[in-house]
């Protein structure tokens, strides 16, 4: 009896990797036992270049540390922000005892989908009126891109190649190959002018195959903060639509964050959709509603006619069902609540504008602080770039130095999240940049 008991404890201890003296012969877990594992060959993967910055930041005990890595909005006090309007929507949801926890349909909350399509395309969008738009609630921007990518990989009659800007949000380069699309880049950013390489972009799109898929950042390009002008957008549209019959896939992760206006930031998407052509759009509510961890987003596919749209929707469901079955309810219910209630919608716009304005004010404060320090170099791009990020032009060595000596955490490509800065931390960042630029000239 006791022997059985001891054997059980020994087995449990082995399971938990504990050392317990049970009087039974012990089994040691020397490193050689790892080689017997079917996964012993698995290599340690590097941390994600963006989310890994937060991992490093969390390990730093310094009270002066500042996280300017991931694009997450912070208040002047450096705290994450839950919008008031989100709190109100949550209170309404909580008070509604008729709500339950049933599964959603595969494509999510119908009202959320309708309102999301209207938000990005405009409530007067002809494509919506003509029932040519299919929208599926997905897991934030990332999930929408992935579902859209897989749908294209399965069903697109054109080349299964997607062109993304160089540089782009790093995850694009991982999402699309896994979705089954060959992923290539087009020129986008010119480090010399710190602006758009418009000629290079047009040349590369022209040289790309007819019908290729083209990923475009709807606004507030990440990481560069450089957007095409309206004229440049028209030039791009002309190549994509008229010259090359390519398929535009918009990534809209920052609607309202760039200019403070939802409509202004949707301008390029609407130009492309209103010309009647097919368009894919991935929307995220992570930043503009501060719903990062709720994972709320939508994939909209604009087809050329309602019959195609209906069949497309049926196949989108077949992409989603084996992937995660159906999306979570809570975040999308918050969004639907805000978008469907006039008062809440107006309140959201005010709060969104306040976030965008605070980011813009950080640009001015940082620029002024560098000017006051007479930091070598031209820093006007801090003022000119758009959205959450400044692509500083600082190199890896300079970034590593700033992290080591000033506890400033940012991605190694020199991108800083302006939304993570505050009036309190601007001087620290300016000192760090000043010192880094003098110590390690580019
Ligand atoms: N598309 C772009 C262009 C993004 O910048 C991000 C987020 C997403 C999609 C996806 O966001 P979501 O899935 O959370 O909706 N980029 C962040 C975070 C803010 C990240 O890397 O995940 C960034 O720091 O670049």
Notes on the structure:
Belongs to the class-I pyridoxal-phosphate-dependent aminotransferase family. Its cofactor is pyridoxal 5'-phosphate. Residues 64-433 form the Aminotransferase class I/classII large domain. This is Aspartate aminotransferase. Homodimer. With 442 residues, this protein is an alpha/beta fold. Helices cover 47% and strands 13% of the residues. It is built from 18 helices and 13 strands. It has a seven-stranded mixed beta sheet, with helices on both faces. β7, α10 (230-243) and β8 (247-252) form a beta-alpha-beta unit. α4 (84-95) packs across α14. The longest helix has 31 residues, at 342-372. The N and C termini lie far apart (74 Å). Ligand PLA is lined by residues 50, 70-71, 140-142, 169, 171, 217, 222, 251, 253, 284, 286, 292, 297.
């Amino acid at each position: 009896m006791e022997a059985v008991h001891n054997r059980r404890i020994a087995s449990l201890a082995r399971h938990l990797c504990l050392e317990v003296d049970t009087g039974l012969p012990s089994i040691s877990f020397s490193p050689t036992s790892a080689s017997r594992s079917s996964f012993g060959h698995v290599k340690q993967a590097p941390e994600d270049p963006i989310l890994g910055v937060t991992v490093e930041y969390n390990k730093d005990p310094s009270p002066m540390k500042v996280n300017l890595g991931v694009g997450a909005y912070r208040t002047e006090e450096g705290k994450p922000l839950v919008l008031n309007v989100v709190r109100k929507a949550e209170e309404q949801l909580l008070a509604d005892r008729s709500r339950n926890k049933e599964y959603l349909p595969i494509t999510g909350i119908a009202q959320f989908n309708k309102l999301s399509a209207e938000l990005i395309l405009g409530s007067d969008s002809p494509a919506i009126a003509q029932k040519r738009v299919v929208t599926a609630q997905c897991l934030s921007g990332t999930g929408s891109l992935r579902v859209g990518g897989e749908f294209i990989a399965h069903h697109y009659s054109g080349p299964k190649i997607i062109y993304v800007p160089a540089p782009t949000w790093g995850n694009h380069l991982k999402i699309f190959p896994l979705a089954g699309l060959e992923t290539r880049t087009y020129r986008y950013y010119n480090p010399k002018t710190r602006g758009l390489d418009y000629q290079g972009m047009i040349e590369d799109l022209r040289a790309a195959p007819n019908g290729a898929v083209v990923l475009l950042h709807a606004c507030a390009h990440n990481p560069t903060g450089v957007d095409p002008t309206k004229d440049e957008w028209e030039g791009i549209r002309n190549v994509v639509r008229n010259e090359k019959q390519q398929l535009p896939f918009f990534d809209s992760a920052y609607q309202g964050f760039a200019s403070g206006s939802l409509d202004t930031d949707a301008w390029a998407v609407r130009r492309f959709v209103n010309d009647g052509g097919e368009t894919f759009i991935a929307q995220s509510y992570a930043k503009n509603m501060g719903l990062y961890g709720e994972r709320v987003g939508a994939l909209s596919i604009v087809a050329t006619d309602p019959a195609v749209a209906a069949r497309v929707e049926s196949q989108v469901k077949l992409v989603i069902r084996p992937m995660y079955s159906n999306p979570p309810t809570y975040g999308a219910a918050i969004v639907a609540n805000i978008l469907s209630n006039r008062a809440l919608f107006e309140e959201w716009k005010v709060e969104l504008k306040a976030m965008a304005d605070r980011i813009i004010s950080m640009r001015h404060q940082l620029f002024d602080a560098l000017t006051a320090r007479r930091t070598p170099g031209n820093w006007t791009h801090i003022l000119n770039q758009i959205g959450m990020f400044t692509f500083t032009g600082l190199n890896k060595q300079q970034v590593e130095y700033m992290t080591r000596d000033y506890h400033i955490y940012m991605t190694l490509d020199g991108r800083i999240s302006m939304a993570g800065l505050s009036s309190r931390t601007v001087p620290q960042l300016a000192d760090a940049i000043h010192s880094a630029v003098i110590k390690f000239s580019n």
